[in-house]
Structures are given as structure tokens and as C-alpha cells.
Design goal:
By secondary structure, the protein is of the alpha+beta class. Helices cover 24% and strands 26% of the residues. It is built from four helices and 18 strands. Strands 4, 5, 7 and 8 form a four-stranded antiparallel beta sheet that branches. A hairpin with a 2-residue loop joins strand 17 (255-260) and strand 18 (263-266). Bound molecules: 2-amino-4-trifluoromethylsulfanyl-butyric acid and cobalt (II) ion (2 copies). One cobalt (II) ion binds at residues 116, 118, 127, 129, 254. The site of one cobalt (II) ion has 5 residues, from strand 7 and strand 8.
Length: 279
């Protein structure tokens, strides 16, 4: 996800096509097919890694598998080399909010983790993440995962031409807070398409009717991070790993979507129907 500032706009090397006054690119009908190919590959790799998520496994072994699957598909990892990042995935365990770096630590019974993969297929970016569990899930972690998943889906339900980005954030925030959990403010979703991170910043909180108006042909991610405790985060000395300040558990789900004439097209649906975890 993007840091919640406008700096990433400087990294938008996208050219051509129509852009809105907010700098949001409008893609064409034929571009949806490219996004589906990229999104489906990213989602399939998240399906395939699931059986490897077991107690005793290292997160770098999961990342090795993901990198290999991207290569075997003839695709490119969007994260390797991105701002110096060296891995094909981010793997964020327990109180890690996002951008967890795969490493030699082994998964323990009851650990929850987000695996986030972004691939490039024929120049199109597919970006998705979901939650996994090693061993036996605690009741409170199960509730967190459930609320985070449902918050994303409520955000997606708010995607249609004429609604605003604030409507998406409002749908997510009100649901999360009604469940006495908190929405992370420090990171957000992002436009994507022929680039990884483009305008707008897709906030996971907000007020109805605010922000840019959604138009057919906009492509972006929605990727709420939800904490059991307070929303504040901090980034560790490795300059990537973001954790909850209060050490509370955090969860995240991410889809890449496009705005259609009458609603939304989800590019990163799980081919095996495994996006929502089964415990
Ligand atoms: N996939 C993340 C996102 O949802 C971005 C990861 S960038 C990395 O936008 F460099 F940390 F991998
Ligand atoms: Co993203
Ligand atoms: Co992602």
C-alpha cells in the first residue's frame, strides 16, 4: 500500500489516456482484460501458497515459493527492486500492519499473517493480499480477520460511478468501528494499472460524498488494515516493517478493482474461491 501522503504521485510515470482533474487515469474497456490477467495470476499464487502456511514454516520459504511461481508464469514481481525492496511478497505477522519483510523466523501456533503479492503481466499490475493462519486460530484473531474481510467487501460494494472515494472510506470505517476495532490511517490503497502506485490515495476512512467522484475506467486497490487496538503505527529500523504502536493484532485484505458502467469489477478474485479464509 502507499504511505498516506501525496509524495507517491511523483512516482506516477504513467502517460497517455485521459486523466481527471485529480490526476486519476481513466482506462478503456479493453484494458479490463489486461488487469484480469494480472489480477488472476496474483490471486492464483495466493491460493497456491496456502498449503505451505503451517507451524514451523519460515516466511522466507513462503516468499521463495511466490517468487518461483511468478517466474514460472513468465510474469514479473512488482516488489523486487521497488524502492530497494528485495522480495516477491510482503508477509506481515500478528502485530505487523504491512510491509513485513520475509525472513528466517518460523511461524508459531496461532500466528496470523497477511501475504501481499503484486505481479506485472504484459505491463499490467495485479495487487492483492489476504490473511492466513498457522495452526489454531484464537477467537479474537478470527473476529479481527472476519471484520477486516467484511470491511473490504463493504468498501467494494460502494464502488460505482457517481459515488465518491469518501463513500468507500465511510463504508469501511463505520463497519470497523461498529465492531470496536480501528482503521489504520497511515497507509492507504492506490490507483494502479500500467503503474504500481498512482493517484488517488484510497483512504479506508472518510465521510460520505467527499473526495474524487468515481468514474467508469478508474482502476485502484482497496486494502484496509484493521487493528484490534489503537490505529497508530510505527515503522521499524529496517525502514519497511510497519507495526501497531500498542502491539495489538492487525489484519488486512486487498483487492484490485475497476469501475464499470454500473458497479465494480474485481480483478483479483481467487480462482479457487479461497480469498475468504476457511478455518
Ligand atoms: N503490495 C503493496 C501494496 O499493496 C506494496 C508493497 S511495496 C513493497 O501496495 F515494496 F513493500 F513490497
Ligand atoms: Co496495494
Ligand atoms: Co498489495
Amino acid at each position: 500500500m502507499s504511505e498516506n501522503n501525496t509524495g507517491d504521485r511523483l512516482l506516477n510515470h504513467d502517460t497517455g489516456g485521459r486523466q481527471t482533474r485529480d490526476g486519476i487515469r481513466i482506462y478503456q474497456t479493453e484494458d479490463f482484460a489486461g488487469m484480469h490477467r494480472a489480477g488472476e495470476l496474483a490471486a492464483r499464487i495466493l491460493d497456491e501458497v496456502a498449503p505451505l502456511v503451517v507451524v514451523g514454516q519460515t516466511t522466507e520459504a513462503l516468499d521463495d515459493f511466490i517468487r518461483t511461481r511468478v517466474e514460472e508464469a513468465g510474469a514479473t514481481s512488482a516488489t523486487i527492486g521497488y524502492k530497494g525492496y528485495q522480495h516477491a511478497s510482503c508477509i506481515s505477522v500478528n502485530h505487523v500492519v504491512c510491509h513485513g519483510i520475509p525472513g528466517p523466523k518460523t511461524l508459531k501456533d496461532g500466528d496470523i499473517l497477511n501475504i501481499d503479492v503484486t505481479v506485472i503481466v504484459d505491463g499490467w499490475f495485479g495487487d492483492t493480499s489476504r490473511m492466513y493462519v498457522a495452526g489454531k486460530l484464537s477467537r479474537k484473531a478470527e473476529r479481527l480477520i472476519e471484520v477486516t474481510h467484511d470491511a473490504l467487501m463493504r468498501g467494494i460494494e460502494a464502488v460505482r460511478p457517481g459515488n465518491t472515494f469518501g463513500d468507500i472510506g465511510y463504508a469501511i470505517q463505520t463497519f470497523v468501528e461498529a465492531n470496536r476495532m480501528s482503521v489504520v490511517r497511515d497507509f492507504c490503497g492506490h490507483g494502479l494499472g500500467r503503474v504500481f502506485h498512482a493517484p488517488p490515495n484510497v483512504l479506508h476512512y472518510g465521510r460520505p460524498g467527499t473526495g474524487p467522484v468515481l468514474e467508469e475506467g478508474m482502476f485502484f486497490t482497496i486494502e484496509p488494515m484493521v487493528n484490534l487496538g489503537r490505529p497508530e503505527t510505527k515503522v521499524l529500523a529496517d525502514e519497511w516493517t510497519a507495526v501497531t504502536r500498542d502491539k495489538s493484532l492487525s489484519a488486512q485484505f486487498e483487492h484490485s478493482v475497476g469501475v464499470t458502467p454500473d458497479g465494480v469489477d474485481i480483478f483479483t478474485l481467487s480462482p479457487a474461491g479461497m480469498f475468504h479464509p476457511t478455518y
